[in-house]
Amino acid sequence: MAIVIDKPRCPQNHPCPSIRVCPVGALLQNGFDAPVVDHEKCITCGKCVSFCPMGAIKEA
Known about the structure:
The protein has a two-stranded antiparallel ribbon. Strands 2-3 form a two-stranded antiparallel sheet. It has one domain: Alpha-Beta Plaits, CATH 3.30.70. The protein is about 10% helix and about 15% strand. It is mostly beta strands. It has one helix and four strands. The protein has one helix spanning about 45-50; strands at about 5, 25-30, 35, 55-60.
């Protein structure tokens, strides 16, 4: 299983709030673009999935 970003659900107009809950720093964001998952760091804990208010971060 992997964490993925559903870009159409991400408003891309703010700092991603889920970045601060990632315990390993696997979510990265350039400006207000949709975040990107560093799959080498990601431990698939699901904290970002639960925290995303728009449901744009999912497990796939």
